[in-house]
Amino acid sequence: MQGRLVILGAGGHGRALIELARDLPAIELAGLVDAAPCAREMLGLPVLGDESALPGLLAGGTRLACVAIGDAVARLAAAARLEAMGFTLPPLLHPSAIVARSARIGPGAVVLPRAVLGALAEVGRLAIVNTGAILEHDTAVGEAAHIGPGAVLAGGVRVGPRSQVGAGAACRPYVSIGADAVIGTGAAVIADIPDGVRVGGVPAKPLA
Asked: In what residue span(s) does the PglD N-terminal domain sit (predicted)?
C-alpha cells in the first residue's frame, strides 16, 4: 500500500514507527498527532496537534494511519476512532523482516526490523512484532498483542488478544497463552498460560 500516513502517538513507539515508515518507499509521512502533544516535532517530523487535526488531514488526502500506542486497550480504542473517521490502517513491515510467503499480517499490525515470521504464521490486527522477534511456523498472535524484542515463539504457539510477551522470552512449541496475559522479560514458557495471568522466570511461574 502507498500514500500519505499519519502516526497517532508521539512517544517512544512513535519514534520506532517513524523510522520504520521512513524505510518504506511507498509511504509519505504527513506527521504525528497526540492526545497531549508535548513537542512540535519528533525526529524531524512535525507534531500536528491533538486528534482534532485528523479530519483536516483526511480531507487533505492523508488516507493512511497507524497507532503508536503501547497499551493494547488504548491502541484498540484509537484504531476504532481512526477507522470511524475513514482512515485505513495498513500493516507496516520493515524491509529487513524475514516474512514467509504464507504468513498473514492483519490491518494495523507492525513488524519491526529483523523480525522473522515463519510458514503460516499469523499476526493479528494491531499486533506488534518488535525488533528481532521470531515467530516460527504455525504461530498465531492475537489482536493487539505485543511480542517484545528478541522474543521467540516456537512452532505452533498461540498468543491471545492483548497479551504481552516480554523481551527475550521464549515459548516452547505449541503452548497457548491466553488473552490479557503478561510474560515477563526473559521468561521460559513451558506450559499453557491462562487468561489474564502474569508470569516470569525460568520456567515461567505466576507472579504475585
From this structure: 4-81
